[in-house]
Design brief:
By secondary structure, the chain is α/β, with parallel strands linked by helices. The chain has 21 helices and 27 strands.
Length: about 675
């Protein structure tokens, strides 16, 4: 497939970008002291080599009172030498590079700024930090704005091709612009014009700092998605005024960090928020960049073709595959490793104050030390098991020049990840396996389904090395009566081998249990396509439509022994799953120890009391246990044996793929 719009150049105030692919700013945690590191340079230069048009680095703090830890800083000249190393490395590989000017306001926790109180437009508590900031005094406002001026000048001096002002996501400029957080009664608060003033003056000062012939970008929320906040209508007016103040490109994203409308999780449809960029584009003459959940060149090309935006963001998509632009331009888009919006390695890592990694790309943050090089002596490598760990081990070993044979005893590739196919909002993670399979085929790896492996098979193959990635199986809890016909496993239910009746109990409030509950609770609700048809034709009232999407034909109860459910789900995703379970009416019972299956339900203990729940189907989702029966037999037949993934011990997909990669990398 050709992508004529995606790979056409665009000039923004004298800066010519070779294509329309932009890697927007995101926190990476690669600069623990604020200084540019080799890790940061290697990360971004690798993306430049992969063909991205423009990289926006950030956030880059403009001062010491509105910044989180581990960001490449712009608030002092001492950072310039390191920033120059970064810009030179990126530009020598053909990409343009911009710096994002960052001031978080009330989104900074006091512990990050020496125990001081965060600043904001007004003293409105932040649900993001749980703290209340102090309102900036009138005479402090010009000083904050001057820090933007100084940081912009410093960025230009450091070799950046452009600067971006961060005015989205609920950061300081957003806090002044929104009536939710701006309760001021002076010239920076009250009226709409006054609330725009802070951001407009910053744009004017930044323009003055860098001159007329230097690109200035503004990142805006196309809709705050905050009750009582700004919508796309207000954002359009603000953008129109910002254009007059000297903005050359608008980078449009979705809501604040505090919004309860998901922005970046797997449940968000692809290009869900392009309409926000399209709204801004309708009122400005400068280019507009569309953001959020654009992970494939076909999607990007269509956005540009219909002129909904002028450029597209592929931030996490380029973490997942730095070569995405190059592969698409060279006609190899079928070999792209797609971001699946799991957030396990990126956003969840940041919330833990850890460096960014990636589920589908274990090389993230380790680009130089994990460079794939051809082996001097090829080995015959047998990989047993076609789940994520086995697939990644096979791909990596084959890329290094080994002769790889991949055997899977079932009739399909992917292992446990395939259970997500039927879980609403989780289907996309299956693409992690699909992408690996296409790359295996391109590497001409010998692949065998329905292949049981035993000692005689191994002797026949005579491999130099074996990778045992035989996965796991459901763990049966010590509950009396599990042989009852109404008891099924979550795996059998999700794979279609079993069905559930109306009243269902899910035993286990872990990720699998909660996702199974979502799968069950969605049954009987209308699909998005039917919803669109009924809404477009005004066939039903909105009240009726809401009932049809919120209520299915199952009564679902989740029972969990722990005090909390979903402990094994990442923080960036957990709240969206809880919200979905609540919307669908799923009942959850914590501190509930299930003790037995009865004729008409199940028995459990809670707070020392025996209780009975009447149900028709009981779903067991209490974890898994390794399957590695072959390990002992293999060790007597092959000198080099690697046990990985769930076969070693149950783990998540990120850990499985990472272990598969490093196994294939070291053979």
């Amino acid at each position: 497939m050709q992508f004529p719009h995606l790979f056409s150049p665009i000039t923004i105030n004298g800066m010519t970008v070779k294509n329309r692919v932009v890697m927007t700013a995101m926190h990476l945690n690669y600069t623990p002291d604020g200084e540019v590191t080799d890790q940061l340079i290697d990360f971004y230069s690798r993306r430049a080599k992969g063909g991205v048009g423009l990289i926006i680095v950030g956030g880059c703090p403009i001062d010491d009172q509105g910044s989180m830890r581990s960001m490449a800083r712009l608030d002092d000249d001492r950072y310039i030498p390191g920033l120059r190393r970064l810009t030179q490395a990126v530009k020598q590989d053909g990409a343009k590079i911009a710096a994002q000017l960052y001031q978080a306001g009330r989104y900074v926790h006091s512990s990050m700024i020496g125990g001081k109180q965060a600043i904001s437009a007004s003293a409105v508590r932040s649900t993001f930090t749980g703290e209340t900031p102090r309102a900036l005094e009138l005479d402090e406002i010009p000083m904050i704005q001057d820090r933007f001026f100084e940081a912009a000048a410093r960025a230009k001096k450091s070799g950046f091709d452009a600067v971006e002002i961060l005015g989205s996501a609920g950061y300081l400029i957003s806090q002044f612009f929104s009536p939710v957080t701006n309760r001021r009664v002076d010239l920076y608060g009250g009226s709409f014009e006054n609330r725009m003033r802070f951001g407009l003056e910053i744009a004017e000062k930044v323009r003055k700092a860098v001159g007329d012939d230097y690109p200035v970008i503004m990142r805006l929320a196309g809709n705050d998605f905050m009750e009582g906040g700004n919508t796309n209508q207000e954002a359009r007016i603000f953008a129109s005024e910002l254009e007059k103040a000297g903005i050359d490109l608008f980078d449009i994203t979705g809501g604040w960090h505090e919004t309860r409308v998901p922005q970046i999780t797997m449940s968000v449809p692809h290009q869900a928020y392009v309409y926000l960029a399209q709204g801004i584009k309708s009122v400005v003459s400068t280019p507009v960049l569309a953001s959020n959940r654009i992970n494939d060149p076909k999607i990007a090309e269509e956005i540009l073709r219909i002129k909904a935006a002028d450029l597209v963001t592929m931030a996490r998509a380029l973490i997942a595959d730095p070569d995405l632009p190059k592969k698409a331009e060279e006609g190899r888009s079928d070999l792209i490793y797609h971001c699946v919006a799991c957030n396990q390695g990126c956003f969840d890592s940041i919330f833990k104050d850890a460096p960014v990694s990636c589920l589908v790309n274990p090389r993230t943050g380790m680009e130089k030390e994990t460079e794939i090089k051809q082996v001097t002596k090829a080995k015959k490598v047998l990989v047993i098991g076609g789940g994520l760990a086995g697939l990644k081990a096979a791909v990596t070993a084959a890329e290094r020049g080994h002769q790889v044979i991949l055997a899977e005893k079932s009739n399909q590739w992917g292992g446990q990840i395939l259970l997500n196919k039927n879980i609403p909002g989780r289907e996309e993670i299956v693409h992690a396996a699909d992408d690996l399979l296409r790359n295996l085929q391109a590497l001409h790896v010998r692949m065998m389904l329905n292949q049981e492996v035993d000692g005689s098979f191994i002797q026949k193959i005579s491999p130099d090395a074996v990778v045992l990635a035989t996965g796991a199986q459901p763990l049966a809890p010590p509950i009396h009566g599990l042989d009852d016909e109404k008891v099924v496993t979550a795996w059998d239910l999700l794979s279609g081998k079993a069905v559930a009746d109306r009243r269902v109990a899910v035993v286990g409030g872990n990720a699998v249990g909660l996702e199974t509950a979502m799968y069950l609770a969605h049954q009987g609700t209308i699909s998005p396509k039917i919803l669109y048809f009924l809404a477009a034709n005004k066939a039903e009232s909105w009240e009726t439509l809401e009932q049809l999407i919120n209520k299915g034909n199952k009564e679902v109860t989740v029972l969990e022994m722990d005090k909390k459910i979903g402990r094994d789900i990442g923080g960036s995703t957990r709240w969206t799953i809880f919200k979905e379970l609540k919307r669908l009416g799923v009942n959850t019972v914590t501190e509930a120890k299930v003790t037995g299956v009865l004729a008409d339900g199940l028995e459990f203990e809670k707070n020392g009391k025996r209780e009975i729940l009447s149900v028709d189907t009981i779903v067991i989702a209490t974890g898994s246990e390794s399957v590695n029966d072959l390990e002992g037999e293999i060790s007597n037949l092959v000198r080099e044996v690697h046990v990985i993934g769930d076969a070693k011990s149950p783990r998540n997909a990120l850990e499985a793929i990472k272990e598969g990669f490093f196994t294939g990398f070291r053979i």
